[in-house]
Write the structure tokens for this entry.
Amino acid sequence: MKALSRVPIFNYNTFSSTLLIPTKSLEIKFRKKYLNAEILIELESLFSWAAIHTEIQSLLITSFGNEFIQGFDPEEIKTLSSTELKKQFNDVSSLAQSLLCLPQTIVIDMKNGTRGVGLELALAADIRIAKNDSVYCLDHLSIGLTPNCGLFSFLRPFINQNVLRSLLLSGTEFKKEGLIALGGWTEFEGDSNQILMSIFGQSPIARMQAKRGLFGIHQSVHKDELEIEKKLFNAVVKSGDYTKETDFMNPSEFKKMIADSENLN
């Protein structure tokens, strides 16, 4: 009888979770292209499980479709209250931080590309894989928001700030050259099985200690930056621009709104 190499585990609605026995890996495969509250709750549950199951050597995070996560659904975002919106973005930030400190090596296959918070999540991975013609975009500003999932805080040491400035403020799509210049080193046309097998061949203790050395020292360094990132995000949420297609609030209106709010307090 042939030994099983793939064993489904758990029963989540928003993604499949499969143990890859030969490499002691866990594959997480998203069923939808957009993040939502249910996905974030289920991911938090799975990451909490992974944190204490150090026998798992690596996590392979990908999707069933041709593209990785494309951020949040721009139409669904418009229907959220400011409290709901802040919670969902804060949850993504927490999950991205988890990728930096989980004991497993995190491999994300971005396939044909990702954008928005999907790209922020991918930038927190240890290893990225993608197709040669994959496409990316930091489209936060076009939906009336600022990054709140690491670009201004815990991902900052790994990101080329000059490239980030150009890509974020232009909001244009970019390809693999732009991603690499940003700091998102990626194995284009990489073989995920080969990468997982290479990780499996490493000393688990040495691997986990190396990951602590790479990322652990940053955990206490960026508390102030996290607070600033959150304040910037909360300010633009207050404008309500995330609920609009166009006709965004102008700076003088925003200034008056803030002044009136402060006077009430």
